[in-house]
Amino acid sequence: MAPSTFKLNTGQDIPALGFGTWQSAPGEVAAAVENALKYGYKLIDAAYCYGNEDEVGQGLKAAFDKGYAKREDIFIMTKVWNTYSSRVELGLDKSLKALGLDYVDLFLVHWPVGMNPKGNDDRFPKLPDGSRDIVWDHDHVATWKQMEALLGTGKVRGIGVCNYSKPYLEQLLAKADVVPAINQIENHPALPQQEVVDFCKEKGIHIVAYSPLGSTGGPLMQSEAVAKVAERKGVSPGTVLLSYHVARGSTVLAKSVTESRIKANREIVDLDADDMKILNDYSDSLVKEGKIQRFVYPPFGINFGFPDKLTGRSMPNGF
User: Between 20 and 30 A from 134 (CA), which of 36, 185, 223, 284?
Assistant: First the structure.
């Protein structure tokens, strides 16, 4: 039977399946979160930059008020955005207020990026030429030191990172007092990121996978390897792509605003060694042919050290 939780280096148990709230349209998020808790999800993933934490909070409150779940039984994580990378606690406080919570179970660095905190937009400041207003001397390690300080406030139970490559993690761990609990990354058979996954496993950092279907519209569900495993197991391609991560020992974030899909995405099946070989062979062939697909890569203009994206400017303590 597929595991329902994994143990973090903090001692916390994180659910194997979570509910994501990215790219959910305004007016749909609250009901989606409420339904997620109604159907038994125990992990909710949010972020300041999504611009919908207030609706996530409304959904949480509605579910708690209706008795679908208790706060202490739900694992909630959110993220500090790039415009708050030099004022992390303020970013946390704004998220807590929007979510209607006293604490989050995990607080994450969304990207190892700094953006102008006094720019022309709170979330996405731009320069006159339309490019992102980046703080080019930003040091992600300094942000992590502010994250570490939050552990004594009672407002976070643990801290972690997102979108960190192996080189960036190596730089961070060399100076960190606290090892990140998780690294949340885009992950699926077309982007296995094995070098990151293996390094995190070695260092006791749990992987949380976002965009498990590839992107909006689920392009990976059309792949021959996924279809073959789906036929073998008698389940949908979506179920295969979600179950793939749990079989790898990772947590996976499912996302939908449709009640029927929210319910269907709860199904995680055991993938055996033969199933995983089909999917891993597919991944290996894409890597070998240079055809891996990364669907989420904002135009920061920074070299984050990912093997498939070795362009952009270098940053302090970066690549």
Answer: 185
